[in-house]
Design brief:
This protein is 36% helix and 17% strand. It is of the alpha+beta class.
């Protein structure tokens, strides 16, 4: 209770609406003062805008500004009469950068403790008291201090955002459902808050697992990169070794070629030198004889002349040089023979390389068996699913979607959508066949060209000795007669399909840069028997690594 001597002074600071000491006093144009929240609430309920004291009406809502003089007087009054703490006392702190300041403080802005969603004002400890003590203000919704309180009001209806429209995913006021969100689904903002908070907790619980999964994926990727680097280093080392050996072979062949040419040139030069030496000796003897003839010609002594004439007349034994010549050696075909020998040598070296490569891809062997549900009705499969040949007549089989009905084809049971795999097929004794891999989605009911764009990667034999790769256009293959076993290797991620002559360890053909966007299955076509010449079966054989 205030002291009796102060009653008059206290009445001067009472709001005529709430009958309590002013809180955020504002003066309107008629000169009367009220609490800002009281007059605001009064005008919200009572229209038109009218002074509660003198009943003066205003055409437009008056602009309300805090009466700083009365506000400071009220603060001083409370300090002296009610012994309330000074708003600038040490237990209250000035708002720091980033903190919400009190909207009522006029000089030093103290740190706000709460914000009112009804008054759209933030309050420090002193200015918050009326909201904690007055019955009319206690109903106001207080929250932790926030800035930009006007963002929490509906800009169209100037009402607090208290609902959530699930149709438009936006916050709305109580008037919005009636005017702007008809037939929409909306709930109290608090209910949506609770639901989203529960969802957030679930997300919060899921995040550590997601982080862990991604960390494991990082480790997996790093491990893959490490394995790739090791494989690249190994492949590079092996490649350098092979190329070094090949270059050494080429260099040796070149040295031998040059040595042969030089040896023939040295032989020619030696022959010429011998001829020249012999000719020079004969010239020397002839010059000596010429001197003797000249001396004898001038001799007047009859006896001496006759005695010497016989010796001078006798010609020395000399070679007849008219048929003697030095012919430059012929080098026709020398380069061709040297290159041919080099090719033979490189072919042998390449055979060793391919043999080593074949050994490596054979490590990816998979156990393939034939799928009877895909077999053409004219084919006969062995009980173990490893052999197939044409049976000369069609069996009465269910026309399943996966069955071939036009060509004598059959697929393997096993499908592959990643990694590498290898299998071998015996083609011995056949005059026609097709082997390779296909997409699972190929058309099995119509005549479709066997091309990569149609999902086929195959090689084939026709007419007993004509080998082709079913590319576009087809590629005629250089394959030695006697091909008995074909190796098929696929690297799915690399887009590679390679075919090997297993018996001679020779790479027959490779499809490169393939685009695999479907499962791949082994493909086999033993073709028609042709009355017997092509009756031998295609046989899926295990890999012999010996």
């Amino acid at each position: 209770m205030a002291a009796a001597g102060c009653v008059r002074s206290e009445d001067q600071f009472r709001c005529s609406i709430c009958l309590d000491v002013f809180t955020d006093p504002v003066a309107i144009s008629c000169g009367h003062n009220f609490c800002k929240s009281c007059i605001t609430e009064h005008w919200r309920v009572n229209v038109p805008y009218q002074c509660p004291m003198c009943k003066e009406e205003f055409n437009t809502k008056p602009l309300l500004k805090i009466n700083t003089f009365i506000s400071e007087m009220v603060a001083q009054f409370r300090l002296e009469v009610h012994h309330e703490p000074n708003i600038y006392s040490s237990d209250q702190q000035a708002a720091k950068p980033g903190e919400v300041p009190c909207d009522v403080c006029t000089e030093t802005k103290l740190k706000a403790l709460k914000s009112c969603l009804v008054c759209l004002t933030s309050y420090c400890q002193t200015h918050l008291e009326p909201h904690l003590t007055l019955s009319g203000l206690k109903r106001h919704q207080l929250i932790d201090p926030v800035e930009n309180l006007e963002d929490r009001m509906c800009r169209k209806h100037e009402k607090p955002l208290e609902l959530f429209c699930r149709s438009d995913h936006t916050c709305i006021c109580l008037f919005c459902p009636v005017l702007d969100h008809k037939n929409h689904e909306f709930v109290p903002l608090k209910d949506e808050y609770e639901e989203q908070k529960a969802e957030l907790k679930k997300t919060e619980a899921d995040i550590p697992q997601m982080i862990q999964e991604r960390r494991l994926k990082i480790q997996e990727i790093q491990r893959s990169v490490e394995l790739s680097k090791n494989a690249a280093d190994t492949e590079t080392a092996e490649g350098v070794e092979v190329y070094t050996a090949l270059m050494e072979s080429v260099q040796r062949s070149l040295d031998q070629f040059k040595e042969k040419i030089q040896e023939r040139q040295r032989t020619t030069e030696k022959q010429a030198e011998d001829f020249i030496k012999e000719l020079e000796q004969e010239i020397c003897e002839l010059e000596k004889r010429s001197t003797e003839v000249e001396q004898l010609s001038g001799c007047e002594d009859h006896l001496h002349f006759v005695q010497r004439f016989t010796c001078v007349k006798a010609a020395p034994s000399m070679k007849i040089w008219t048929k003697v010549s030095v012919r430059p050696p012929s080098y026709e075909g020398t380069v061709e023979r040297a290159v041919s020998e080099l090719e033979d040598k490189l072919r042998k070296d390449m055979k060793k390389v391919v043999k080593a490569e074949l050994k490596r891809v054979q490590q990816y062997e998979v156990d393939v068996s034939l799928d009877p549900d895909t077999a053409h009705p004219g084919l006969i499969l062995s009980d173990d699913g490893k052999q197939v040949h044409d049976g000369d007549e069609w069996k009465n089989l269910p026309d399943k979607p996966q069955r071939f009905t036009v060509h004598c084809n059959v697929l393997g049971k096993q499908s592959f959508s990643s990694g590498r795999f290898y299998f071998e097929v015996q083609v011995k004794g056949k005059t026609k066949w097709t082997v390779g891999v296909v997409r699972e989605s190929i058309n099995r009911k119509e005549v479709i060209p066997l091309r990569p764009q149609n999902g086929y990667w195959t090689i084939c034999l026709r007419n007993g000795n004509e080998y082709n790769a079913a590319a576009d256009p087809p590629v005629l293959l250089s394959v030695k007669s006697g091909l008995q076993k074909v190796g098929v290797f696929v690297d799915y991620e690399e887009g590679l399909v390679s075919f090997y002559d297993v018996g001679s360890s020779v790479l027959i053909y490779s499809f490169i840069g393939c685009c695999f966007n479907d499962k791949l299955l082994p493909f086999f076509s033993p073709c028609l028997n042709d009355g017997g010449p092509n009756s031998a079966p295609l046989i899926i054989t295990p890999v012999d690594t010996e």
